[in-house]
Design goal:
The complex is a heterodimer. Chain A is an alpha+beta fold. Chain A has 17 helices and 21 strands. In chain A, the strands form five sheets. In chain A, strands 1, 7, 8, 9, 10, 11, 12, 16, 17, 18 and 19 form an eleven-stranded mixed beta sheet that branches. A three-stranded antiparallel beta sheet of chain A has the order 4-6-5, covered by helices on one side. The chains are: A alpha+beta, B mainly alpha.
Chain lengths: 598, 319
């Protein structure tokens, strides 16, 4: 094989253009063994964290302290109340779910004895129930045994509206029953091909019945254990200062052999992302930091001769520009962007197509996201079976101009195109966030060249993402023509991500803008495909349906995908964190270890 | 005197009520809510955030929310934080020691630099010492703390690797080692804040001293044959300190309020960082409590300053 080709491929992997996995497969195709391919990458300077590294330590403990730095301080330790990732991570140190998502997006049993499947009888053929077998002999940190009663209790706790649990969405559609002390069954009203939501991942963490039973419902806030967790996790609780510090110590009774590796754990919160990167990569004061939303240029500079490195995990988080289907400038019954209106400019497919041609994804990746982004034409970017190969993006001001010319949008005296007396002027809003403002500027520039006048608007994140019914600046009100933000994919299945745009969920004044379909897109084919996919048991057909949904969104220009965002963490050189694009950073904490330095 | 203090305290009650009303209204009118993180999470249906808003009373009319708050506050219930669902007083008490230690040390440092330097510079105006002190003071208060903070981090942590730049409330070890570590990690933030304060305070002390030092009674004191030290300390300083005391008294509530920027840079878990993170996440009960306590302290220390005037200058009588 040609040396140069190999080098380009290694560079591709480095820049995140190619998956490590894909690289290794390609190498195997050339007759190399997998470990050898990995070696090539290591020699090429690609961080190894993405591959599933086997757990090396042969005994429990002895790893010293693990020091984590989160630039947002966790404020609570009850997984059912966790509003943000920071709180989910903090709870996850002490609490565990039945299973978590591993690096490749597969289920990894934690408190479950095995992952339910058709073969082991865990999954019903009609996809209407799941039977979980629990691991025997698991103990809570206070020595009480973990049983099926605890699992059922968590469902009761979360679904009681008076508890005000955030996890109610995860458990709401299911019923949970105890079969015996170590078996529970989750029943669904309708066939649910994606059954691994309840009791899995961040909102699947289980709290002990014997400590929380008295605090279900209205008294949920009063439980002393909200701030003093007693879980089953690899580390036992020592101290918690909300917004500042969490300390834990090794759970010597942990239910997985030889784990955990570290003797103590500390999670410090607060500050900003850049100095967090500095504390890991440059001074080595801390071992790991999360969510490095730092310009790649800065990270590259820090990494030169540093004590740590950045690591990446590919998931399905998508940064996109949503295109409004309704008219934000006309008020109908006290509501702008009403379903009774049509957008005067954006209802023209040529305008939508032109806009999709005017997003210079290469420039955005190069200038802003660097290794933390991949260009994409898809709204749905993973897992692999769900990713459409029918789309392709292009950046071309000429083609966009031609499209608009052909559709009758002629440049006026001021250079802005117009048709039937309507000027091609658009309001483009997003939340205040460095990379987003830069992206806005890049898009605006291209639009100007093509004769579209774009006005930019930025809203403080706490307002933009709030559920404040009275505030017109939230993303759900969408009182603008275009808006940009990111929707994360919290599990390796498209069901929740794609369901949002079913016409049944349009956000309107009537439902207090609670509907998740904020572009207010209505398409019969899309609705039908979603409805079919949600109960489709055949995985291949189901994947095809979601690919179709993605393609429909692309063809109709509902969403203009900007960047497939990749998770970035900063890790000390010797640390071996397990990071998955499909889970939170600490979801596989039990498998973290530090390589002995000789 | 006793009557005066009592009257002032009684006057403070309506003004504090007024302050709380204004604070509460402004916070209630501010847009946004603490559940922003939920919005884009596909796992959490929008109804959840709406139910939480209703449960925490965010959808009630403002006057009702204010009355609830006032009644609870009168009974010593500060409410609970939306972000951590923990009681607000616990959160504040948890952070108070750190703030008092770091900001308090910074104020002490500022005073211990500003008073001697200011006094000495004033006794020899336009001398070399005065010129240098002035120049440094100008530089000192022209450089914002976020700049000096980062500069210190780059020099002392990154380049020289002498000091840690992440403040830890969890220092291991006991006895002398613990004390040394506490001092070591506080050096940079205390320096940054203290030098900034010292710079402006030096200018203030100097000009207060200069105003007094030229007065006739000082010349008289000198003519009596009193030594320079006695004249400066007993005659000039005592009078010059009146405006300085006001300044210091008004600075003391700031010790409680913390220093938002510096605390953020060095990750000091003090009141300032609690305030800013609560503001950013729209955690109104916490913001309300911190700002209100701050207002109380300002009112209280104003009173103390007034009482001190009487002691410093017997001509001022308190009625």
């Amino acid at each position: 094989m040609l040396d140069t080709e190999l080098r380009t491929m290694i560079d591709d992997v480095k820049d995140g253009r190619m998956d490590r996995r894909a690289f290794i497969q390609r190498m195997i195709g050339f007759g190399l063994t997998a470990p050898m391919a990995t070696q090539i990458l290591a020699v090429g300077g690609v961080a190894m964290a993405e591959g599933p590294s086997p757990y090396k330590p042969a005994k429990r403990g002895g790893g010293g302290p693990l020091k984590l730095l989160w630039w947002q301080g966790p404020t609570l330790l009850n997984p059912h109340f966790a509003t943000g990732t920071k709180d989910q991570d903090a709870s996850r140190i002490f609490y565990e779910p039945l299973a978590s998502w591993d690096v490749d997006g597969n289920l990894n049993p934690i408190l479950a004895a095995e992952i339910p499947s058709i073969q082991n009888g865990g999954l019903a053929a009609d996809a209407k129930s799941v039977t979980w077998k629990l691991k025997p002999g698991v103990k809570w940190h206070d020595g009480k045994p973990f049983t099926a009663d605890d699992v059922v209790f968590n469902w009761e706790y979360a679904t009681d509206p008076a508890t005000a649990a955030v996890s109610i969405g995860t458990y709401g559609d299911a019923t949970v029953e105890k079969i015996d002390d170590l078996t529970v069954r989750v029943l669904f009203k309708v066939p649910t091909p994606f059954w691994a939501n309840a009791f899995v991942g961040a909102y699947g963490c289980l709290i002990p019945k014997h400590l929380f039973a008295d605090y279900k419902g209205g008294k949920s806030r009063e439980s002393p254990n909200n701030l003093k967790p007693v879980g089953t996790g690899p580390y036992k609780f020592v101290e918690f200062k909300p917004g500042d510090l969490i300390r834990g110590e090794i759970n010597s009774d942990y239910h997985i052999p030889n784990r955990p590796h570290f003797d103590t754990i500390e999670l410090k919160g607060g500050g900003d992302a850049v100095s967090a990167a500095r504390a890991i990569i440059q001074t080595g004061e801390y071992d790991y930091a999360w969510n490095m939303q730092v310009e790649d240029e800065v990270l590259l500079r820090l990494e030169k001769g540093g004590k740590g490195k950045t690591i990446y995990a590919v998931g399905g988080d998508i940064e996109f520009i949503a295109v409004n289907s309704t008219d934000p400038n006309t008020e109908v019954d006290g509501e702008r962007s009403s379903m009774k209106t049509k957008h005067p400019l954006l209802s023209d497919p040529a305008v939508r197509k032109a806009l999709a041609l005017l997003v210079d994804r290469n420039a955005i990746q190069k200038v802003i996201y660097g290794r933390a982004g991949r260009t994409t034409a898809n709204y749905l970017n993973g897992p692999a079976p769900f990713v459409s190969k029918n789309t392709a993006w292009e950046f071309s001001v000429e083609k966009a101009s031609k499209l608009l010319d052909d559709a009758g949008w002629k440049p006026g005296a001021d250079g802005v195109r117009e048709k039937d007396g309507k000027k091609l002027k658009l309001l483009y809003q997003t939340s205040i966030n460095g990379p987003r403002q830069k992206t806005q500027a890049i898009v605006k520039q291209a639009c100007q060249k093509a004769g579209i006048d774009v006005e930019l608007k930025s809203v403080v994140a706490s307002v933009f993402f709030s559920s404040d019914v009275a505030n017109p600046d939230t993303y759900a009100h969408f009182y603008a023509d275009l808006e940009m933000f990111q929707i994360p994919m919290t599990q390796p299945d498209p069901v929740l991500l794609m369901r949002r745009y079913h016409s049944r969920y349009v956000a309107t004044k009537e439902n207090k803008w609670q509907g998740s379909n904020f572009p207010r897109w209505v398409n019969k084919d899309y609705d039908a495909a979603i409805d079919a996919a949600e109960t489709e048991v055949d995985p291949v057909k189901r994947a095809e349906l979601y690919v179709k949904c993605n393609d429909l969104m692309w063809q109709h220009g509902v969403m203009i995908p900007v960047m497939h965002r990749i998770k970035v963490g900063a890790s000390a050189n010797a640390l071996r964190p397990v990071m998955s694009g499909w889970a939170n950073d600490l979801d596989n904490l039990q498998d973290w270890y530090r390589e002995a330095t000789g | 005197m006793g009557q005066y203090v009592l009257r002032r305290l009684l006057i403070a009650i309506p003004s504090l009520l007024g302050i709380s009303l204004v604070l509460f209204t402004v916070l209630a009118l501010a847009p946004g809510d603490p559940f922003g993180d939920l919005a884009t999470n596909p796992n959490v249906p929008p109804e959840v955030a709406l139910a939480l808003r209703a449960k925490f009373g965010l959808d009630d009319p403002i006057y009702l929310r204010y009355l609830h708050w006032l009644v609870a506050m009168a009974q010593g219930d500060w409410g609970f934080s939306f972000a951590s669902r923990a009681n607000v007083d616990t959160l504040i008490l948890q952070r108070l020691p750190t703030t008092l230690y770091v900001i308090g040390s910074a104020q002490l440092l500022a005073l211990s630099i500003a008073i001697p330097v200011g006094v000495f510079a004033a006794t020899r105006p336009y001398s070399i010492f005065d010129q240098i002190a002035n120049t440094l003071a100008f530089i000192g208060f022209s450089l914002p703390t976020f700049f000096t903070g980062l500069l210190f981090i780059l020099v002392f942590s990154v380049k020289l690797d002498w000091l840690p730049f992440v403040y830890s409330t969890d220092i291991k070890g006991t006895g002398i080692h613990w004390v040394l570590e506490q001092i070591r990690q506080a050096i940079m933030p205390v320096m940054v804040l203290g030098l900034f304060q010292a710079a402006s305070m030096t200018r203030f002390v100097r000009s207060a001293m200069l105003d007094v030092i030229r007065l006739d009674y000082v010349t008289t004191a000198r003519a009596k044959g009193l030594g320079q030290a006695t004249v400066i300390v007993k005659h000039v300083m005592r009078n010059a300190m009146i405006p300085v005391v006001t300044l210091i008294a008004l600075q003391i509530p700031a010790v409680f309020g913390g220093a938002i920027v510096t605390e953020q840079i060095f990750r000091i878990p003090g009141i300032g960082s609690l305030l800013i993170s609560s503001i950013l996440s729209n955690d109104t009960p916490v913001v309300m409590a911190v700002t209100f306590v701050f207002a109380c302290l300002v009112v209280f220390f104003n009173l103390i300053a007034d009482v001190l005037y009487g002691w410093l200058d017997p001509r001022i009588s308190l009625r």
